[in-house]
Design a protein that fits this description.
The complex is a heterodimer of chains A (about 900) and B (about 425). With about 900 residues, chain A is mostly beta strands. In chain A, strand 33 and strand 34 (about 675-695) form a beta hairpin. Chain B has three domains: about 50-175, OB fold (Dihydrolipoamide Acetyltransferase, E2P) (Beta Barrel), CATH 2.40.50; about 180-285, OB fold (Dihydrolipoamide Acetyltransferase, E2P), CATH 2.40.50; about 315-410, OB fold (Dihydrolipoamide Acetyltransferase, E2P) (Beta Barrel), CATH 2.40.50. Chain B has eight helices and 21 strands. In chain B, a hairpin with a 2-residue loop joins strand 13 (about 260-270) and strand 14 (about 275). Chain B starts with a helix and ends in a 6-residue tail after the last strand. The chains are: A mainly beta (about 900), B alpha+beta (about 425).
Chain lengths: ~900, ~425
Amino acid sequence: MRLKLFLLLLLAAWLPSIAQTVRVQGSVVDASTGAPIKGAVVTLRDQSLGAQSGAAGDFIISGAGQGTDFIIIDCEGYEPVAIDVNLPNVRQFEIGEVKLTKKNAVVDEFTWDLSDMMFDESALEDDEGNSQNIAALTGANDNLYYNTASYNFGPMYFRYRGYDSRYQMVYLNGMPMNDLIRGRFNFSSLLGLTSRAFRNKSTTVGLDAALYGFGDIGGSVNYNTITENYAPGTNASVAFTNSNYMWRALVQYSTGMSKTGWAFSVAAIGRYAKEGVIDGTFYNSAGLFLSLEKRLNNHNSLTLTAFGGPTQRAGASATYQEAYDLAGSNTYNPNWGWYQGKKRASRITETFDPTLMLTWLYKKGNTTLTTSATARWVRYNSAAFNYYKANDPNPTYYRYLPSYYKDYPEEYELYTDLWENSEYMRQVKWDEIYQVNELNNQYNIGKSDDEKIGASYIQENRHSNQFVTSISTYLNQRLNRYMTLQAGAFFNWTNGSYYKTIRDLLGGEFWVDIDPFSDRDITLAPDNLQNDLDNPNRRVYKGDKFGYDYNFYALKGQAWIQNMVNLPRVDFYYGLQIAYTQYQREGHMRNGRAPYNSLGKGKMHRYDDAMIKAGATFKLDGRNFLLAHATYGTQAPIMENIYVSPRVSDAAADAGSERVFSGDLSYNWNYRRFRGSVAAYYTSVSGATERLSFYDDRYATYTNFVLSDVKRVYSGFEVGMAYKITPSISVTFAGTYAKYQYKNNPQGTRSFENGLYADTTQTVYLKNYHVGSVPQTVLNLGIDWVAPKLWFININGTWQGQSYVNISPTYHEALPDLWQICTTQEELEAKLADLSKQDKLRDAFSLNLSIGKLMYIQRKYQLNFNLSINNILNNRNVCTYAYQQSRMNTSTYDRSAYPNKYTYAQGIRVYVNVGFKF
Amino acid sequence: MKRYLYNTLRGAALALVAASVASCGGDREIPPMIIPTAPDGMEATTTIAEVKERYYDASGYTFTFADPIGQLDDGTDQIVKARVISNDATGNIFKRIYVADETGAIQININAYDLYESYQYGQEVFINLTGLYAGAYGRLIQIGGFSSATSSPARLETDVMDEHAYRNGLGQPSKIDTLTVGLDVLKAATAGTPDWFKYQSQLVRVNDVYFVDAGQATLSTSGSSGVSRTLKDAAGNSIVLYTSGYADEDIYDYICPAGTGDVVGILSFYNATWQLVILNLDGLIGFTPVDHIVVEEQPDPSGSGTLADPYNIARALEIINAGTYTNDKVYLKGIVSEINSIDTSYGNATYYLSDTGSTAVQLEIYRGYSLNGDKFTSTDEIKVGDELVIYGQLTMYNTTPEVTTGSSIISINGSTSL
């Protein structure tokens, strides 16, 4: 009896304590970017209970008692936050999202603003195909090396670990946005709004685990446009710069979340330059961004994001060193000429790609589910000359250059003199072009319709349009206090359409739709001339479609799952992704060069791929960490790499998926005044496919060259260190020493567009040659000074070296006839060595300065000034991109017959911005 | 302690970075060196001499033909192992190559320019003749392709020739044998003789010869298919130097040099005449180059045709060109400028007389007899440079002014006896 009572009392005493235990949960995010903060220490003060936030920023404190208390959240680099709570008698108590503000938030925000603006700047140069990439990912993260590399490793085009931009994934609200056909993300579609509308982002560096997706070996960024994350208010700025564009005006207005559950944000941007820093270039663009959110209830919200804007620009292109030297400037641009008293550009690009996205966000307890659906229209159009039975209108055609006459001193002198002194000689001769067409018209007078001849020159528009629909969802689930689960799925259907239209007949009467390059084959294979055998010699007029007309259909389905574990001494994660990719071409013209393989739906190419990744962070103590990551798997090739010459036929390289392996090891330290990291990495990509097209003199036809089963290895070291000399002055050093090389001798297949020869396959000797146009050694030293009265000064210097010219495979094959110009074996050896040399670009040093000032007016308004000067020393010899021509003089094997083509960065670059926030 | 450990770790990491300066990048691969090599075990099955004999009628009467080359009796292809002995860089040799083995040399017609690149001077090459055509043009034996049985072998397309030629190594000029031959030997090597087979198309060297037109004319004229210039040795033997007007300008515009020297070239043959073709100006060795052509002043016509006052050559030419010559014999005097031939069996000689001794303006004396109408018994009775007075009949033979057959010499250098 007494025992029973005792037990009953015991039970009575115990039960309430069970009933009264509360599980407190919530998540910690960065107030400025919305990115989750991991490793924040969350304490229930009076009860001395605590937890650490995981990678998703979420935390659980279990076994708490009812009643009032304070929740203190503390994290290195952030201002601590204390929240008053009154824990009710419930099983689970949700605090929600706690925003932490960075110490020196103002400084950081200021610096990021400027960096984002500079980033938008460089995004403009991301021309399709020409310049490979820009330092892609910006955003708040602790990786010193990465941040410095992104912002300061210009003006040469630096690529993270030397990777092509297809290895960096860009997400928008969890939706992968990389172009399925080209593999990469076109940053200029963000309209230059990275510092405003797209400022909320999470960046994942390299092989780290991300919350929003599986990412890729080059890292990833997720832009977040959920409306309520935009701080209410208005933000306006005006900027002036002396590069591609001159003027930029930007304004954003956000309402914040209203009581009725609506939030709205709108941003508008305009950029204009009548003429850029490079002669004959211009830039006009406008952009609009809208984000509208409705909170449906406590757990669900819907956000509609819409953005887009038209751009029209005229750019330069890479050309010969000889042309730059003769013109006396590395910013010489051959793509313009005087016409009727004005500068008229010959290569104009027009783009407009509006995007519409609906995002449903579900957050309840330990579960966050983000689902998005997107529709996107890409309209891209670039203008260029076309000509038939006439002289090449490009002023730098090799026969117009003095070097063509190097064996004839009189002509050589004459041409050199003309080039150096006559601008007319160096630029497009519009008058002559119109004149030639006019002569054709005069010839036509009185002739019967059949006898008339068309224009000799036209300007055509090459269209690359896309319609993209995609849907994605990703889940973030906290399993227990140590583990979180991420998983997601994604589906994308892309319809790309490619065709060209007549932009301007340049005074001519009509254009005959035939291929000018095939004119040589007119006796052997007259059908080769026809772009459309079912409509031979069709006359086309302004606006008509001609030349080629085909669609690319790409489909991708992807699913991934990942587990992140946080333990006191070690964090680790592992994940898996599977993907299915499908490509198909549909031609709408029966091309004479491939009459059986061009019209209609072509072969379906399918790829099944999978990747796994894993990583761990060993917390040696609170300040020293050892990190290791690895990933292995396969990726489908990029669609535009496998089709040998899609404008003509359905022919595709026999390419399988690439195999990727990447691993890195790094040691990080983080002391109050001194922090940094040293990392070593090794990445190998094998079974890759590369493609290029050029005119081959030996066979007198346009040739498409596909390299298959290519192996590339990217390996090196990265260092990033920052030392605080005083609380307001710090010194940063970042650098990389790496090698990006081809590591095998792949097979190269030549396809001759005129169909007169069978395809040939031979070995291309690429082993140990460097991936081109990216500096493999970069060193940067900078000083930051946060001066009193909110002045921010940064001066840094970057040295970039070990950058090489992009080689052409034609100089790296066995040349069976080379012996004919050599009389001894030594001569032959020397000639081979000369032909296969990979030229090195000049090393570059650039000094950059930026000054900023922040002012508060009446405690409500914020005014900021930024002045940024890049390349103060006006180093005009920084080559950003160079490639070896594929043409080879096969009678003399003289390399100087077809010299390399170069693009140079401009000299000193100034950026001035004035912003106003209220 | 921990701090020390971490400092060491940091230092080690940085040291690793610094130490990696030694690049493990590796040497860049160069495409393989390709030197043409004949297939393993390839051997000659016949020789050039045997081929010539097989396809050329030794009586030597057929001038132009082309016959298909078949296999040997034992069923194997006819393969010769030869060395390229020609170089068409200057264009003096056009769309053909010459190859030689120890037994002889032969011409091969190929339809391409700049054959010196694909068939290097001195390069060893196995040639499978089976399937090609052997023939001749103007009695010059050559190899080529089919055109018709009564035409010479056509020029082979390069891809066809490439199928039949197996080059072995790069050109080795030092291994070429240049045969030295005397003009007298060549004179005796008439069509069908063993020497004629031996020397045809060979790279030869003739020593101690002089240009009959030294200083007076260029080797050829632009656009001409070929111009003959005469080389003579001390004995009066001559050979034609044949130069194309499509060669480089510095060849056809080269003024026939003065003095005596040696000439190296390909020995070609046409109908009944040997023709020497130089490969380039290096083939003219030891001559004295002439800056510009000197046009000698010719004396005025004079003389009345009598013994006391013979016609000079200018007068004789004047009469012949005016058509006022008669069948009567007349006296004329001049200096021997060139000797064509001295035939000791028939006893007559064909030579030229001119007023200045140079060949610029001269008159042919056709089959004339020696002193007093006697037969020539030796070849040194007259020499270039001798001053002669002769007695003969002036005539225009077709378009050639000459002293017709049957003339006799009255005096040599003033003397009426040898």
